[in-house]
């Protein structure tokens, strides 16, 4: 009886049509499928020509599988939509309302202006959204420090940068320039972590830092003047009687 040649379970790297038995197309397909499965688990790569299978990109894919493996669905978590970005932040506005009641000012006026004037010093409020997680949205508070008599020189900018870098005399606030002459102090805190009392304390501390830095800048560079409110706005006047 002639010797019977059984097809190998998977083609070896030295297997070819010249030194091994011929196999049918179906057998080659089954063997190639087994090689492809092994490759997924072992990390090996087998070329389509070696495995006997047509390249994946040359074979038609069913509509259901095409939708399932669409790269659009695998792009990652969805960002906030344009409509969500345009919607007012109710948590932020509710916090401004609570702050207005805490300071005994008109809530509607604070909602519209999002600005206070405390002892002649301008306080601006805004919200910084986190595109990935709404729980990380921040409320940003900016306070005018002083208006320099001329565009900020290099030594002024160096002083502000050193204070920010070393957290020296800022109590957690950041100093910066608005334009070329207006020095401002700003502080940001996670919106979900504050209430009206804590926000009022933050505003009080920021005003105190602004006053101290105004005195320091005027001592080093005399003739600085307090920054006036921006044109076109009418901030609500609030007396400086805040308690932490």
From TrEMBL:
Residues 56-65 have a biased composition (Basic and acidic residues). GO terms for biological process: protein secretion by the type III secretion system. InterPro entries: Tir_chaperone. CDD domains: T3SC_I-like. It comes from the Bacteria. Residues 1-70 are annotated as: Disordered. This is Type III secretion system chaperone.
């Amino acid at each position: 009886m002639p010797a019977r040649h059984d097809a190998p379970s998977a083609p070896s790297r030295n297997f070819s049509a010249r030194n091994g038995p011929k196999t049918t197309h179906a057998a080659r397909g089954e063997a190639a499928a087994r090689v492809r499965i092994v490759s997924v688990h072992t990390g090996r790569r087998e070329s389509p020509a070696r495995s006997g299978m047509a390249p994946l990109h040359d074979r038609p894919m069913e509509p259901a599988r095409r939708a399932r493996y669409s790269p659009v669905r695998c792009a990652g978590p969805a960002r906030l939509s344009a409509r969500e970005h345009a919607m007012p932040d109710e948590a932020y506005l509710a916090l401004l309302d609570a702050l207005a009641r805490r300071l005994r000012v008109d809530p509607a006026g604070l909602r519209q202006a999002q600005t206070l004037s405390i002892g002649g010093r301008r306080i601006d409020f805004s919200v910084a959204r986190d595109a990935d997680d709404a729980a990380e949205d921040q409320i940003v508070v900016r306070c005018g420090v002083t208006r320099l008599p001329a565009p900020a020189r290099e030594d002024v900018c160096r002083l502000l940068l050193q204070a920010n870098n070393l957290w020296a005399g800022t109590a957690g606030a950041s100093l910066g320039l608005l334009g070329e002459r207006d020095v401002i102090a700003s502080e940001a805190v996670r919106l979900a972590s504050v209430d009206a009392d804590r926000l009022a304390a933050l505003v009080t501390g920021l005003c105190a830092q602004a006053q101290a830095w105004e005195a320091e800048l005027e001592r080093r560079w005399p003739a600085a003047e307090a920054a006036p409110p921006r044109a076109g706005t009418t901030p609500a006047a609030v007396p400086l009687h805040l308690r932490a």
